[in-house]
Write a structure and sequence with these properties.
The chain is an alpha+beta fold. Helix content is 34%, strand content 25%.
């Protein structure tokens, strides 16, 4: 900035450069401020994000895919890497279930704010009578834990099923049973992966997801908050939503926990989630439920 002002003093036209640099610094400062609000020993980890549609068939499945797009846009805006781990397409449109890996510093700590039921109100594109519909989908986030942390998983506790991948796009469709589903019998946790053509690679990724889920479960027990994250999701239906996205008869995105509202709902659906995330983290801190993350 000093250099730009020196050039300006010499008569150079650098007003546009100064504006761009101020915008960059403002964004960077906002990210630093938000990071100080993160809590938990896994806040800095990569994240696995899973979306499930609620009742309503095609309508809610399409909403689930809209949420997937929103989170992929958010990740792209933050420079995070993404990997489609599992994708179960709907019969007509949307998704029945999807899991995506999001890789980057603080991905889990930030996305924890998104855990819960998300509600959409709009004129349905699938209704010939152009009636207003309400759809629900749940979002669940858990951390990708460090490979150095030892989680013992015994073979006798596992049921491993293989099946033919049916992912989005012809390039993902296999001619062999390479997709893998692993059920951890004692806990009931089910993970699955089909993004690779190799059954061995899919099993490796699924085991990593399982270890992460088991580790998170143990942390919950240690904090005497067993299943707190699952409980926060509640039923994927009326009265349990954490956020509403209204496209008709007015346009508004509102978080029901913090009362934060944004009129430009299209911007939110295009990945601008940071205001919601920051307000949620501030509310947790003010409620005495969070502490600053330990420095690396």
């Amino acid at each position: 900035m000093e250099a730009f002002f020196e050039l300006a003093g010499e008569g150079e036209d650098v007003a546009k450069d100064i504006q761009q640099e101020l915008k960059r610094l403002d964004t960077e400062l906002g990210s630093i401020e938000t990071a100080t609000l993160l809590s938990g020993e896994n806040a800095q980890c990569n994240a696995f994000l899973t979306i499930h549609p609620g009742a309503g068939g095609t309508e809610s499945q399409d909403w689930a895919e809209m949420l997937l797009r929103m989170y992929l846009r958010w990740a792209e805006q933050h420079g995070y890497g993404t990997e489609l781990i599992d994708y179960q397409a709907g019969e007509e449109a949307g998704v029945k279930s999807v899991t995506v890996g999001i890789k980057g510093l603080n991905a889990y700590g930030l996305l924890m704010a998104e855990i819960g039921v998300h509600r959409l109100v709009r004129i349905s594109p699938f209704d010939a009578n152009k009636r207003r519909h309400t759809s629900f989908a749940s979002v669940f986030v858990y951390p990708e834990i460090d490979d150095q942390i030892e989680i013992v998983v015994e073979d006798k506790d596992l049921r491993v099923d293989t099946y033919r991948a049916t992912g989005a796009g012809g390039q993902h469709i296999n001619t062999t049973d390479s997709a893998v589903r692993i059920t951890h019998i004692p806990s009931g946790i089910i993970v699955q992966c089909q993004n690779e053509r190799s059954q061995h690679k899919n099993r490796s990724t699924a085991m990593k997801m399982l270890r992460s889920r088991l580790y998170e479960m143990e942390l919950d027990k240690k904090r005497a908050e067993s299943k707190a994250i699952e409980d926060a999701k509640m039923d994927i239906a009326w009265g349990s939503q954490i956020r509403s996205y209204v496209l008709h008869p007015y346009r508004l995105a509102k978080d029901h926990r913090t009362k934060h509202e944004v009129g430009d709902v299209d911007r939110v659906l295009n990945g601008d989630l940071d205001p919601f995330i920051k307000v949620y983290l501030v509310s947790r801190r003010d409620a005495g439920k969070a502490a600053p993350v330990k420095p690396v």
